[in-house]
Amino acid sequence: MSVSYRDALRAALLYGLLSVFWLQISDHLLNSYFDDWGQLAQWQRINGYLWAFISAVLIFIARARLLSFMGVGARLKHQRQDRERLRQAAVVFDCTREGVLVTDCRGTIVHVNRALVEITGYTAAEVLGHRPNMFKSGRHGPEFYQAVFKSLQESGDWNGEIWNRRKDGEVYPQWQTVRAITDGKGQVTHYVAVFTDISAIKKSQTELTRLAHHDALTDLPNRLLFTDRTEQALASALRHSSGCALLMIDLDHFKIVNDSLGHNIGDLLLKRVADRLQRLFGKGFTVARLGGDEFAVLVDNCPRTAEAALAAQQVLEVMKGVFEVEKHQLFISASVGISVFPRDALNAEQLLRNADSALYKAKKAGREGYAVYTEELTTHAQYRVEVANDLRRALEQQELRVYYQPVHDLKTCQLIGVEALVRWQHPVRGLISPGEFIPIAERTGLIAEIDAWVLEQACWQMGQWQSAGVELSFVAVNISSRLFARPELFTLVSTVLADTGLDPALLELEVTESAVMDDSQAALEQMHRLRTLGLRLAIDDFGTGFSSLLRLKQLPVQKLKIDQGFVAGLPADNDDVAIVRAVIALSQSMGLAVQAEGIEHVEQAQLLLDLTCDLGQGYWFGRPMPASELDWQRAPAMHG
Ligand SMILES: Nc1nc2c(ncn2[C@@H]2O[C@H](COP(=O)(O)O[C@H]3[C@@H](O)[C@H](n4cnc5c(=O)[nH]c(N)nc54)O[C@@H]3COP(=O)(O)O)[C@@H](O)[C@H]2O)c(=O)[nH]1
């Protein structure tokens, strides 16, 4: 007999004994108290009721204790909570965005939610009773599914990426978790799969990867992908003992298209160039846009320079045809730098760098051509690095000097101004001409510091001449495009003028035509700001750039300097004569002074005077020299 039965028997016996005891005692007491039968009968009735009441209380207590002992109350509470939880789970099951699929232990689908219907395109009725392999995409082999089942058997769950097929046939990726559900004895009763459709994430991931590796404008591979492909090509060339060539292509004077026709047309032209290059080389080659107007082509199986040169020549040829861009008929040429693996470089970075050096050489050689990398170019590059380092030291050690070249009035031949030109007094190499170090200073950015220093020296020197009573109309200082592009130029010039006390009207800043046209709107603003200081502005090397006359008209400049390249051809070269005549006429029609530079012969000075040029500068008048050597009285006569 179980403990509970024994307890129940004990309670029943106790109740029986208690009842007998109660009946005996109450009967005895009532009989001894009441003699009257009527009263006795009444109290016996009351006694009966009383016992019934006590019994009811005892039954209640016993039952309450029994139920609590058996845990029925808690179970009822739990049942209520379970019902609530199930209701909530059913809502979650149906509202969740994840697809849910439940199979029995044999793999037959017994339950699916609304999200599964939406994701797969099947109705619940079309799915129930079938097996999950109805969603198979065919992308995974049997070994994939075997691995899933193995994981479910060993650990009871699996999660990972799986490609399935929707009802409409579309194959899509989903992230899925499958779990085995077991009963109390550890037997699998069901499998539950919960999955998310990750096709949108995949698409944006793919798009991001594409964007990171492609140029947005032309859709060509960008520098990152091109470098990667070059590395792969080099590795493959190494394995097969073959070679490959890298062509770096840069469009000549592309800036003019942007400046004159706007960036939209410039962009469209770049797209057309990209298309043309792709068509020329076809699918087997990697054509990339490295940035701006720079493209590159990787030519596989091309170990010899001659073959690479042939490819470069084809690039030059293909660029020759007209580009039709929105009603504009554009012509553009290109320069190409060639570097060959393994002859020139052993890794992608070096190959790119060397092709770039060759491209620089092609540009310097006059553009619309190609140049092949040579070791000499690296030597040059190293030399440039050494000079740049040396220049920094020169600035600190005050090794730079300012020379002044006289500028004469062509009518009176009087010296009326000077141009400040920098020199480098090298401790070992002696006096170095700016032609040797200015281009390097420009490439490294040191030019801004040099120009600032020359400006300070020239203003100070002009102040000294003024104090000494020398009658000079101006001192001209060259401002490189690097410094000219900086907003702090205005502060620099005003500080120098304030520090040296020079009358701003005596200062002339020379800016090259290309510096002004590079970003003409910014240049215009810079020039107007500088003009508020009261100084004068001149366009240097006029005729070598590609000024738009419309832009030129807007510039607040006071002088045009005819480039010495045109003066050199005077008086024999008819083209130069025509150009010089046109520039003089242009200056005069715009109310600008005009100055010719590079005058080496009296005939040149005479012709320029005849053409009504205002000012002249050149070796015939005087070479650049230290301030102390200038001869203020020198006025070389033109007529004998
Ligand atoms: N940003 C700066 N550029 C500067 C500075 N100083 C010079 N430069 C530029 O360097 C280039 C070479 O200058 P330099 O060797 O001084 O040559 C100048 C003249 O010496 C030369 N010149 C003058 N007359 C004649 C001549 O009759 N024949 C001849 N073959 N050359 C002559 O021309 C140069 C003057 O150039 P420009 O500035 O265009 O008037 C040169 O581009 C300088 O601009 C500097 O401080 N900052």
Report on this structure:
This protein is α/β, with parallel strands linked by helices and 640 residues long. It folds into 4 domains: 71 residues; 107 residues, PAS domain (Beta-Lactamase), CATH 3.30.450; 160 residues, Alpha-Beta Plaits (2-Layer Sandwich); 232 residues, EAL domain (TIM Barrel, Alpha-Beta Barrel), CATH 3.20.20.450. It has 23 helices and 22 strands. The chain has an 8-stranded mixed barrel. Strands 2-1-5-4-3 form a 5-stranded antiparallel sheet. A 5-stranded mixed sheet has the order 7-8-6-11-12, sandwiched between helices. Strand 4 and strand 5 form a beta hairpin. The radius of gyration is 49 Å and the shape is elongated. The protein starts with a helix and ends in a 14-residue tail after the last strand. Ligand LFPHGCPZ binds next to strand 14, helix 14, helix 15 and strand 18.
